[in-house]
Amino acid sequence: MPDWVLATLAAAFCQNLRSAFQKQLKRRLSTWGATATRFVYAAPLAVGLLLMLIWGRGTPLPNGPPHFFVYAGVGAVAQMIATGLLVHLFSRANFATATAFTKTEPIQAALIGALLLGDTLTLPVMLAIITGIFGVILMSLPKTPGHPGWRLDGAIWTGLLSGACFAVSSVSLRGASLSLEGADLLLGTATTLAFVTLLQSSLLLGWLAWREPGQIRKLFAAWRQAGWVGVIGFAGSMAWVAAFTLQDAASVKAVGQIEIVFTLIASRLMFRERLRAAELVGIMLLASGVVGIVLLNR
Question: pTM here?
Answer without folding.
Answer: 0.82
